[in-house]
Amino acid sequence: QFILEKYQEESAILDPSLTDMVKPLMAGVRKIIAAREMYMQKEQGNASSAYPFQRFISPSLHRMFQVLYNLCKVRGYKRIVRLMPHEVHDVEPTMHLLLSQDQSDYTTWETRYILLLWMSMLVMVPFDLTSIDSSTEAAPSSYAGLIEGLVGLCKHYLGDPGPTRDASSVCLSKLLTRPDMDAKHLTGFLGWANTVVGGTGTAEGGGETFGLVGGGASAASGNNAGASVPGGPGRRVFLSTGVLTTLVMIFKHGHRDRLEGRIPLVAECMHVAAQAMISGRASTLQRKLTMKLSQRV
Question: Which of 15, 22, 278, 295 fits 83 for a cystine, CB–CB 3.0-4.6 Å?
């Protein structure tokens, strides 16, 4: 980290060496993931193993992700993510590893950050994602399939107070702007974004109500009470910022013809946001989104 930060001002100097740094790191990551997948397949053959996504902790894996995060911080994630492998057989194992992370462990946030960035590249594979989803009826009810699971997970991380929120926005925007996501998932997300900004939506996996407008948290019941990021009602600021960031990216990367029909939904979202007391980054994101909408119109 100390060595890499010396290149912060002139990060382009690293470009000739980036491949030589990222390639062995990702090879190590894939090796650990492959070993875990083999172990989980063996465990699933055991009748006593009912849940395939129990928590997975690997200090060596996390250290590799820390190095990759520092490369992203110095050179920019766009440069680094292009050097990550993006083969179709990496999609499910990476998703499984992401599902097995302890969302409340904030000492390993770099792992989730890099996994989400990697998924943002993997979801762009030129195949129908449902065709590579191996989930079966034997899968636990909490795992709703590859696409639903990833959308739900990204929604949750949009409320993260750290860089994981930005990685989640990147991943979700790349997924939702795929041509085969229009019919259901994109429209559903835009509707959910309205409720979040309006203060009536809930974070995925949690029982609290978050938004830029409206009161504090509604009562959380059962295990959902511990599913949200510590901070209670303050989390709504992070979630709303994450939602607006994602909307900006969707209208930046999405195809014009496919997004024009969704403009009324987003316009409604921006109308609600404009009436809220938005400050800081959320206000900047609102202006960016308004600019993107005007360009689309």
Answer: 22
Question: 3-state DSSP call for residue 210?
Answer: strand
Contacts for 276 with CB less than 8 Å, ≥ 6 apart: 197, 211, 212, 213
Here the tokens at position 144 are: 């709703």
CB 248 within 8 Å of CB 266? no
Q: How far apart are CA 110 and CA 162, in angstroms?
A: 10
Tell me: the pLDDT tens digits for 130-173? 776 665 444 444 345 788 889 999 999 999 999 999 999 999 99
212, 213, 217, 220 alpha-carbon torsion, rounded to 10°: -80
**How distant, in Å, are the alpha carbons of 35, 169, 264 from that of 173?**
30, 6, 18
Rounded distance, CA 174 to CA 161, Å? 21
Token pair belonging to 275: 């009436």
CA–CA dist 128, 226 (Å, integer): 35
